[in-house]
Amino acid sequence: MRWRGVPLDVLVAASSVGLDLLTTWHVGDTAYLPAEMNIPMALLAGLPMGLVRRWPVPVTLYLAVLLFVTDQIGSFTSNTAQILICVAIGVAGYRSGWRATLLAVIPTIAATAFNMADPGISITSSMWMYSVLLPVFPAMLGAYLRSSAERLEERDVTPDALLAAGGVAITVLSTWTTWHSGPQPVWVAGLLAVVGGLSLGIARRFPGLVFLLQGVLLVSADIYLNDAVNTCVILTLIAIGVFAMRVGSWAWMTVAYAAGCLLTAIAVVADDTEVTPFRVGVLMTLVATPIAIGRYLGARRSAAAAERLRAEESAKAALAQVRADQLAERERIARDVHDIVAHHVGAMVLRASAARYTAPDGPVADALSDIRETGHQVLQDLRDLLDLLRDPDKQPDLLANPADVVRESAERMAAAGLVVDLDLDPATDHAPLIARASAARIVQEGLTNVLKHAGPGTRVRVAVTPSKEGLTVEIKNGRPPTAIERLPSSGRGLAGMRERVRAVGGTLSAGPDGDGGWLLAASLPARLTPGSAA
């Protein structure tokens, strides 16, 4: 990525050197420079343009100094420097802020004024006006393009670069031999040729503006530089073709076609030209050809855009169908879970409630009450889970404080026969809610596993403490006091805890402690890790 765009910089530098060699090829010795210095001067003027995309303001300042020096020593490289400095200041307006651009504009105005003034002649107000407008216009154009760049829909600049390069190649190669034949300075003809070619680079973005500019250049060439008229006609036809591709209104197409016919007639019809129906038909066909090509390319582009839109809509519809299928499957699972689990748990609660009213007070009554309350809580949790299955976007309600859930779990397991030693650090209240809620669920499942696998009478220590990473949960039980009959187990309790801890980016370990007991330890981070499935 560091060297991306280097071929373009090399091409710009080589083109700039070639431009100076084209403008100075016929020049022999001057008062200060021999003819052998033409190549070194071309390198001095053109090679810095390879850096114009990265450092446009320093390159502009360098060209301003070079323009002043070459003008003072009578070098024809000043014509090239005057052309290149307008390109550089346009790039500065596009890539730099207004302060930096202003820093480049002021020296350019001064150097342009000295270049336009003949020796011994004072600079007039009219000359100052041209000296100011010549650098300010490309700077404003570059700033305008920078401000509108974010609104462009098409980011690929390859077609624009090809249009600009082709335009400059057409204008320079077909007109450079006539730059010395007109009454205007060489650099004026060269600058108009370069600007006319470069303007095609923005034709796709601003087709109307470029078409208007090419029309103005065509009329100017017909008046002041007749040898360049054919080249301007070619650029105008290219501009009208791009206009037809980008503008879909047939009313504007009609206006552009009429303007193209008028401009082409101005260029090819002289005072002594005989106007015949055949020649009129040829001229109208000539202008209609790029419009037809442009409309065809525009229709292809619109069809491709419509196809992309249909593909995107199809992808969205497929995703919506997949989501609908998932929601239907969730609904079916929720219905099955409700029919199977809720029925049995509800029956268990009802029978425990009935037995509680007929049983005398004592441990049996307390156990029945605990079964009834636990069943009610299970049914409530089951309802919340089913609601979440039916609507995945719904956020589950946390009705209880996680610390209260931990204490309630310890009390319930103590009532069921475990000897629970709870160490709940008050500092854990400052931990994130998701870590505290996960810790509460781990404590619930861990104590349930101790009761199922170790049995009543087992001593268990529960510790929930803060750590540097977040929260640490430790559940350690001793050796079972007697042999017990293990309760039925699905084996999913430990796997579920591992999934819960992994979901928040933590770690969990479980295994024998070496003393006949069991140790469960979990580390919960304070923040979700980037790879966790929250």
TrEMBL record:
Keyword Metal-binding: no
Pfam families in UniProt: HATPase_c, HisKA_3
This protein's UniProt keywords: ATP-binding, Kinase, Membrane, Nucleotide-binding, Phosphoprotein, Transferase, Transmembrane, Transmembrane helix, Two-component regulatory system
EC supergroup of this enzyme: transferase
Residues that span the membrane, as ranges: 76-94, 101-121, 127-145, 157-179, 185-203, 224-244, 250-270, 277-298
Histidine kinase/HSP90-like ATPase domain sequence ranges: 439-517
Annotated Signal transduction histidine kinase subgroup 3 dimerisation and phosphoacceptor domain residues: 329-392
Entries under CDD domains matching the protein: HATPase_UhpB-NarQ-NarX-like
Catalysed conversion reaction: ATP + protein L-histidine = ADP + protein N-phospho-L-histidine
Entry-linked SUPFAM superfamilies: ATPase domain of HSP90 chaperone/DNA topoisomerase II/histidine kinase (SSF55874)
EC number: 2.7.13.3
Top-level division of the source organism's lineage: Bacteria
PANTHER family recorded: NITRATE/NITRITE SENSOR PROTEIN NARX-RELATED, NITRATE_NITRITE SENSOR PROTEIN NARQ
UniProt name for this protein: histidine kinase
